[in-house]
Write a structure and sequence with these properties.
By secondary structure, the protein is an alpha/beta fold. The protein contains 6 helices and 13 strands. Belongs to the 3-oxoacid CoA-transferase subunit A family.
Length: 232
C-alpha cells in the first residue's frame, strides 16, 4: 500500500494496529453484508475487551457471534439481540455489557460521528428507559432527548466493488449499516468482492468515497442465509 493506493493483501495487514479494549464499528444487518473475513481475523488475533458497535451480533457460530464464543467482546452497542442464543445468555447473566439503542438512533449516532457532530436531539426514546439520565429539550411542543454520537478505533465494512483509491459501492440491501460505519472509524477497513482499476467505477454510483477508507482488501465470502423460506 502506497500513496493513494489503499490495497492490502492480507487480513493480518488489514487489521494491523487492532489491540485489546478498542472500539470496533461493524457494518451489516443480521448476517447480510457483514465483513465476515475481517471478523474472522479479529477472532484469530485473539484481542479481548472489545466494545463492538453493530446493528446486532450475528448468529450463533457465524459473524460477530464467533467473537462472543471466544469472550472477546466486553460491551455490545446494538439495536436488537436477534436470534443469537449466546448473546441473550451473556446479556442475562451479566457477563456481557449491552447498550440497546433504537435502530434509527444507532444509525444516526454513527452518521453523526462520521460527520463530526458530537450529539443530536431525537424524539425517539423519550419517556422510556432509553432517556434516563439524558438531557431533554422541547422543540415546537415536542420533547427530545440528547444522544451522543459514536466513533470507533476501527470500522470494519463489507462492500461489493472498490477501486485502488478505496471508493466503494455496496450491493442492494447489503448496503445497510456499512456506509455509516465506514465514516466513523479512525481506521476504516473495507473488504470487497472485487477491486477494479481506477476510473472503472461510475462516480455517480459510489456510496463511500475513498477519503473515508484507509485500507481495502479483496476477499471471498460465504454469504450465509439466516432464514431460508420455501413454498410448497
Amino acid at each position: 500500500m502506497s500513496g493513494l493506493d489503499k490495497r492490502v493483501y492480507s487480513y493480518e495487514e488489514a487489521l494491523d494496529g487492532l489491540t485489546d479494549n478498542m472500539t470496533v464499528l461493524a457494518g451489516g444487518f443480521g448476517i447480510c453484508g457483514i465483513p465476515e473475513n475481517l471478523i474472522a481475523e479479529i477472532r484469530r488475533r485473539g484481542v479481548k475487551g472489545l466494545t463492538v458497535v453493530s446493528n446486532n451480533c450475528g448468529i450463533d457460530g457465524f459473524g460477530l457471534g464467533v467473537l462472543l464464543e471466544d469472550r472477546q467482546i466486553r460491551k455490545m452497542i446494538a439495536s436488537y439481540v436477534g436470534e443469537n442464543a449466546l448473546f441473550e445468555q451473556q446479556l442475562l447473566s451479566g457477563e456481557l455489557e449491552v447498550e440497546l439503542t433504537p435502530q434509527g438512533t444507532l444509525a444516526e449516532k454513527m452518521r453523526a460521528g462520521g460527520a463530526g457532530i458530537p450529539a443530536f436531539f431525537t424524539a425517539t426514546g423519550y419517556g422510556t428507559p432509553i432517556a434516563e439520565g439524558k438531557e431533554v429539550r422541547e422543540f415546537d411542543g415536542r420533547k427530545y432527548i440528547l444522544e451522543p454520537s459514536i466513533t470507533g478505533d476501527f470500522a470494519i465494512v463489507k462492500g461489493w466493488k472498490a477501486d485502488h483509491y478505496g471508493n466503494v459501492i455496496y450491493r442492494h440491501t447489503a448496503q445497510n449499516f456499512n456506509p455509516l460505519a465506514a465514516t466513523a472509524g479512525r481506521i476504516t477497513v473495507v473488504e470487497v468482492e472485487e477491486i477494479v482499476e481506477p476510473g472503472e467505477l461510475d462516480p455517480a454510483h459510489i456510496h463511500t468515497p475513498g477519503i473515508y477508507v484507509d485500507r481495502i482488501i479483496q476477499g471471498s465470502f460465504e454469504k450465509r442465509i439466516e432464514k431460508r423460506t420455501v413454498r410448497s
